[in-house]
Design goal:
The complex is a heterodimer of chains A (about 500) and B (about 140). With about 500 residues, chain A is mostly helical. Chain A is built from 20 helices and two strands. The chains are: A mainly alpha (about 500), B mainly alpha (about 140).
């Protein structure tokens, strides 16, 4: 499809309306403390399932874009980060609210999100084709190692417990194996249950892991003391933000670059991007001591990187089929549910969906400016007043009906409930939902590529061909590095702590 | 205790992966290889985590103070809703929502109970409109 037709497809009035609605929905869910962007995307998976692929993908992408911005509102107004990504936003955002500059902080977050989001998507637009073309050099061996890399890096970064992250990833893959054997077409691992023959449907499973488990976690948290958010009047807020943006273009560019690069790395998501961006902005500033006391640059740095990460995380997902983070993984799951395959296929299939999707995301990031200014900031303030009382049961109902709708049977709801309760229990012991969900999504891809590479190796008469190929070797080295680095850092920290303990014990004995 | 839950869940993963590996042996090549590889590796990792957890002292409580009842009620409510949903969506949903709101209400006054009932009915209507009317889902 020519470029002009892709633009026309993304500019269709119905699609534009859906992009706007999805962006607002994402921003509102993102604003709720404890409810993440991945939950917002998962919750709408059943709704987009019957849609046309372009519209469905754009709805999910726009929710992602909106949610990454929305989480700043709670961070600024209540000092509660909507998600971990907006934690650095609280450092200067909340002090600004305490100084009566809440509106300025909210607009700085909005402007930063629009800038970062647009830059991230532009980088995606310009690099996707080249990376997808490079992916033509990949055979099944490389794709297998790429999925392993995606799993190991995300598991390795699992809340500081790599072993449990890897267990979660393995468990996700094991669950994805239930159903029909793709090679022989025979049922396997159904344990005598006929309902399991069709396998564990991805969407109810993701609803359970990311919505139900999240709701149960929110029930476990005590939030009775959540204060009432107030913005207050500040007439020159917009002018101050525009002035700051013009003056500190270095912050905008540096934070965008950090967001895109971090977003591209599998596993390194928003929290890392926004934290590094905030720290770098503070480090390069002449008055670094004033950070944490209400600097507008602090809010912008965090939010620019946060939203630039959206485009970055979609680059490896669309070009190679390896998601940069869990949000991108869920969108990958939707892509596969629509019968599409990432990589060069997205360009060569002639549908133009990939190009229209990226243009639509660019529109979403730009639309965020008027939507945020006139609507989201006000609505988020109201939404933050909704007590948990009404949210938790409502989300459970929406998720249950969603799970029913995609499978048209109660089995989907049972899967959702089982994985939701199980996912919550695993979360309690430190096995996060992200690696399990990734295992579920990447498991079938890993199996297909593993079996194909095995067959090629058998035909070539050597199993070493699965490993000894230039790109495979690089990917294997990256897998080893992703596991070894956290192990090395943990050992070094332990040794430092032990040494520190000995020194302090020696000092006390000396006294 | 947290440590008991940790051991039980990790043991469950080991058993599940062992069963998976056992069944995978019966599959004809080459399709058996990936499930066996996954089963053995995951069971080994979970086993390692289990051994690691044995060396640690018993952890703190599973739930923070006061939250156990709420989470358990949430789980029981969800299971009950799934069972009731088989019968009728329009009957099960408002009941589940109303009881859920009622349980989570910090203060139960006549006004808050009435509001909870209205929101429960409105939410049921909205989800029905979304799924049954617009998306054409044949709800039970």
């Amino acid at each position: 499809m020519p470029f002009s037709e892709s633009i026309a497809a993304a500019m269709d009035p119905t699609i534009l309306l859906m992009i706007a609605l999805a962006t607002v929905f994402g921003a509102i869910i993102g604003a709720l403390p404890g409810f993440s962007s991945v939950m917002a995307i998962s919750l709408l998976l059943p709704v987009v399932y019957p849609m046309d692929p372009l519209m469905g993908l754009l709805v999910l992408g726009s929710i992602y874009m909106g949610a990454m911005y929305g989480d700043a509102n709670a961070a600024i107004l209540l000092n509660i980060p909507g998600t971990a990504s907006s934690l650095p936003t609280t450092f200067d955002g909340f002090p600004m609210t305490q100084q009566g500059r809440a509106k300025e902080a909210l607009l700085a977050a909005l402007a930063g999100s629009v800038f970062g989001g647009a830059v991230g998507i532009l980088v995606l637009l310009f690099t996707f084709g080249a990376l997808a073309e490079f992916s033509l050099r990949f055979g099944p061996q490389e794709y297998f190692w790429l999925t392993v890399l995606g799993l190991t890096t995300i598991a390795a970064l699992s809340e500081g417990n790599m072993l449990k992250g890897l267990v979660g990833g393995g468990l996700g893959i094991a669950i994805s194996l239930i159903g029909i054997d793709p090679y022989w077409g025979m049922p396997r691992f159904t344990f005598g249950q006929s309902s399991l023959i069709s396998g564990v449907h991805l969407i109810p499973a993701l609803l359970g892991l990311f919505c139900v488990a999240q709701v149960l976690s929110s029930l476990a948290s005590d939030e009775r003391d959540r204060p009432t958010p107030e913005i207050g009047a500040q007439k020159d807020a917009l002018a101050k933000v525009m002035k700051a943006m013009g003056r500190r273009w270095d912050v905008l560019l540096r934070s965008s670059a950090i967001g895109v690069v971090i977003g591209m790395l599998p596993g390194a998501g928003g929290p890392i991007a926004s934290t590094i961006s905030y720290n770098e902005t503070r480090r390069w500033d002449r008055d670094s001591a004033s950070f944490g006391k209400g600097r507008i640059e602090g809010v912008m740095a965090s939010e620019v990187a946060n939203n630039a990460m959206v485009g970055g995380s979609l680059i490896p997902m669309m070009a190679l089929g390896i998601p940069g983070n869990v949000n991108a993984a869920v969108i990958l799951g939707a892509l596969m549910s629509f019968g599409m395959r990432p990589g060069m296929n997205l360009i060569s299939d002639g549908s133009g969906v990939a190009m229209s999707f990226m243009i639509g995301l660019l529109i979403s990031s730009i639309l965020l400016a008027p939507l945020g200014y006139f609507l989201i900031i006000r609505v988020s303030t109201l939404v933050l007043r909704i007590p948990r009382t009404y949210l938790a049961p409502t989300i459970l109902v929406f998720a249950s009906v969603g799970a029913y709708s995609v499978t048209n049977s109660m089995f989907g709801v049972i899967i959702m409930a089982a994985l939701g309760i199980g996912g919550y229990a695993f979360r309690r012991i430190g096995v996060e939902a992200a690696p399990i969900g990734l295992g579920l999504i990447l498991g079938p891809i890993a199996e297909r590529e593993f079996t194909s590479s095995l067959l090629i190796a058998q035909a070539q008469g050597s199993y070493l061909t699965m490993v000894f190929r230039p790109i495979s070797l690089v990917l294997i080295a990256l897998c080893v590095l992703s596991i070894a680095t956290p192990l090395f850092l943990s050992l070094r920290n332990k040794r430092a702590a032990r040494l520190g303990g000995r020194l302090s014990a020696g000092g006390e004995a000396g006294k | 205790m947290m440590s008991v839950l940790e051991k039980a869940l990790l043991a469950l993963v080991v058993v599940f992966c062992a069963a998976l590996t056992w069944e995978a042996w019966a599959i004809k090549p080459p399709a058996w290889s990936f499930p066996v590889f996954t089963g053995v590796l995951t069971a080994a990792l979970a086993g390692w985590a289990l051994v690691h957890s044995r060396t640690r002292p018993m952890g703190g409580p599973i739930f923070s103070e006061g939250s156990a009842g709420t989470v358990m009620a949430g789980m029981a409510g969800l299971v009950g809703y799934v069972l009731l949903l088989r019968v009728s969506y329009l009957a099960a949903t408002p009941v589940f929502l109303f009881l859920g709101y009622l349980y989570l209400l910090p203060e139960r006054t006549l006004r808050s109970i009435a509001i909870a009932a209205i929101i429960a009915v409105a939410t049921t209507g909205f989800t029905w409109l979304c799924f049954a009317y617009w998306l054409g889902v044949d709800l039970p």
